[in-house]
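To whoever picks this up:

The parser on our side crashed when reading a file containing two proteins. I've narrowed it down to the boundary between the first structure block and the second sequence. Both blocks are reproduced below exactly, byte for byte. First block:
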Amino acid sequence: MKVRLSSRRLSRKPGAGQSGFTLIELMVAIALSLFVVSGLAILFVNLKTTFTSQDQQAQVQDSQRLAITMLTTTIQSAGYFIDPINNTQAAALPVSAVNNPDGTSFLAAQGIVGTSGTAGPAGTSDTLNVRFQTASGDGVMNCLGGSNPASAASPVVWVNSFAVNASNELTCAVNGGAAVALVGNVAQINLLYGVDTTGDGTIDTYLGASAITLANLWNNVHSAKLTVSFVNLMSSKSSAIVTLPQPWVQTISLMNNT
């Protein structure tokens, strides 16, 4: 018995079983992709701008804290000397043998002196010189963090000279040495000094450095009103420095001349 196998020809339509996108569908997909990518790019740029702004703000805040802390601590120590029972301020802080970096000098017993509007990029920043005496191992530091070591055989007088340089940095030099940058983003510092012009021990006016020098009243200074202007990093350019709208203002009492 023979079995005949019959075969059937399966007919298919041309292109059957294959799928794809039409040109319109591709264009729509590309448009949607571009829209999503554009949104992500805008988000990235915004996040980067926000991060940069926050970072710049943090830098300015760090500069503010460090500059104000250093200036306040040093100004408060103006005129300090050890052993007031057996010593006098004039003996501990005699007439300075050399001029300070800004050309000023100290009279006997004088702990603070400066100039008005002679420093900084714009030539409008004040300079400041503060001196005080330290004993060996007492831990009292100068503006660069140095102190009189315990091994020292005699007291040391530290002269701390502050200024703002052309790079908008607050600098300090100790005992006439090289100026060292302490903190950046400082546009200028300005000071008014609380002065006792009548000799009754009470502050009766605030004067700038030039007026005090002219009236020979540095030994009558009891406080300092410090104004520090900081650079606005978000608005400044290399060709034009912009300062923050509100400077830091602080009044500091001279602990050793109140």
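<<boundary where parser fails>>
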Amino acid sequence: MTEPCDLPAVEARRMIGARQLAPTELLASCIARIESVDHAVNAMVARDFDRARGAARRADDAVAKGHDLGPLHGLPIGIKDLEETEGLVTTHGSPIFRDFIPTADEGIVARAKAAGAIVIGKTNTPEFGAGANTRNAVYGATGNPFDPARSCAGSSGGSAVALATGMAPICTGSDTGGSLRNPAAFCGIVGFRPTPGLVPSDKRGIGWTSLPVLGPMARTVGDTALLLGSIAGDDARDPLATTIHGRAVRRPGDFYPPAAVDLSRLRAAFTPDFGFAPTERVVAQAFAEKTALFRGAFAQAEDATPDCRGTDEVFEVLRAVLFLSSHLEKTRTRPGDVGPNVRANVEEGLRYSAADAARAMTEQTAIYRRWQAFFERHDVIITPSITISPRSWRELYPAEIDGKPTRTYFHWLALAYAVTVVGHPAISLPVGVDAHGMPFGLQIVGPRGGDALVLSVASALEAMLARDQRTARPVPNIARLKAAGPIGAMEGFIGFD
């Protein structure tokens, strides 16, 4: 029998509205799952159970009294530990913020709460979200739910693991170099990178940069769309949250439920590497085998890629500029409390000049325009979500892939940051497992502003692929995790490197 914590968010919300499931019952199930498996994976690192229970009782009362219920009413939510949450410690994975308790909710948290979600706790992240291996010197490492000795990727790794193991039906995340999509791929769940500004950020240091975004994560496309509809909107504090004065230009109904789409009318481009990403052979093999099963569903299925020349260099420079703006002072005044990934980015940024930044922004624009020309002939691009199969979390980053050295500590994220550089929406959809038995994620990239189209295509593929065990969403062995030893006892658990 399905436990309440394993229900899709959409189904749980339907049952709550129909008085078939009480918010307190759903919360109790999620808390029980956390307490039974989190020792093995270390995903929900700061817990807010007492306040959550109070909120769930109030949610029960609202149902009983027939009040209008928000779209997320009674749904427990995990909040990434980069996002400030009132009254709950928010460490950013850094010893500098070990004891930081915000006095107000960040915008994304406030919108989720206003829609009825109940914060159950904070999910683990690498220090300041740097790197895609969820491990830090405050809470330690988060293990992959299919093998806790392996990486869950990141930086929204704690959210991905919490979802995969049934600790919460919805979670928040953020993404610069794939931090919503990479852990989704490694953990067998859904992560969606929206168009910059669609989910407003009131904390982004450089307000006009399109690289970092906030977004939703869940176990299914429908659940992801449900959360997106509640956290998308307008916020004057975010200059990218484009609006028309006096008009509401974003509505939940734009994204949930995903509109039906006829794949046989769409033109899809397939590429394992965007022409430059260091894709591991086992990933390229899985991509070829799985896409062969559904290519025929599209009107056109062409092996093609946009011209991505210069993407590595652009991302390296612009990412370093972001780190300078956010972390230069920390590395100068508290170097012992800053880890190697942050230091490396700051040091790299200091080597660049204003001319380097100008060239990077100019080249970014050129790449973007080449992508627009490509999308005149294609409706979506389909790629693997991430270049490698999960490895040990003790590996700070992959120094080599198939025997070839990587150019930077984040080079292995190239499949994701190719999309980041141009600002297109993209989703990671779980599609079975690879030859190593680890989850495989498929990235679906839409045209400029095509968030709703991406969700619709992903939903159609999800429904089609769920019928085949080779492509259905993989589910971790919860009984095995319950019986596993604590991840905290593993060598190297706490630390930056």
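After patching the parser it read the second block fine. The chain has one domain: 4-489. The mean pLDDT is 97.
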